[in-house]
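Why does residue order matter? Because the sequence determines the fold. Keep that principle in mind as you read this record.
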Amino acid sequence: MGEKSITIEDVAQAAGVSRQTVSNVLNTPAIVKATTRERVQDAIAKLGYAPHASARRLRTRRSATIGIHLDPYAGGISGVVLDRFVHALTESAGDRGLRVLVYAASDEDEEIRRMSELVDAGDVEAVVVTGTRYGDRRIAWLTERGVPFVSFGRPWDASPHDDAAHLWVDVDGASGTRAATEHALSVGPRVAFLGWPAGSPTGDDRERGWREAMMDAGASPDLRLSAEERVADARDRVVELLGAADVDAIVCASDTLAVGAHVAAVAAHHSDLVIIGFDNTPAVEALGLPSVEQLPELVAAGTLDLLMAGGTRIERRAAGSGVAHVLVQPRLVIR
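Structure:
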């Protein structure tokens, strides 16, 4: 039986540092204190540690490839926004001499396994994470591994400025629903909000904009409905609402919900009800409904700006080395 190969964990133990510190010495030595770096390098030399070929390829930035997860196809209306983002990211990356590798995974565990395979093989040198959530284990994994990444979505468990090493781009959903609510209030004070069930950080953020606009206007934010991201579910909730209360307008967390609300309003002979969506998809455009435009092309540009520190090479930015977050302001499209 051959001798056990030396691992990065062996080096970390010998040097008395974390696995992440060893990874930093190998990949981004400039961010490691000189005395610590020397201790790790001594341990590497004494143990005879040699990173495998794929790790060396990753360090030399030869792949120039960004990995991004493609959500399972679920149909619906609002998914077109992520499609636009991936398309814009791919197109803009090509203009900068980079490539985009799209991979599929059905859940968070599988996504982490896929990222590990791609990084270890040197197929990608950076990752774009989409759909951040509370307790997001993907972010923790990428940070621990020292993989350069940008997330489309904020780190919802902490203040956006707590960790400058976490690069992120997001759309200011609260700003979008605030603008939508202010527009709806010009019709009357009874403005309802149709959102998703509790637990969605994006949904919570969009609801916050509605609540703040209502309170600033002296209106009561008591008409809050919840529906799954399905036209039929949204329709049923709005049918119930219209049968129980007088409503001047409905601000929705997505275009899918807005289409359901529109169907309910038409069936109730209330086609003049102001309904505002979020995502500005072709579906609401066809129905003539106003909606909040996310501008995913700006999100894609911001993502690449954060990943690229100069030239056409992707480099991990140390904390404090420039802009770490981009919050895109959406625009309300009135029809």
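Residues 97 and 140 are 29 Å apart (CA to CA).
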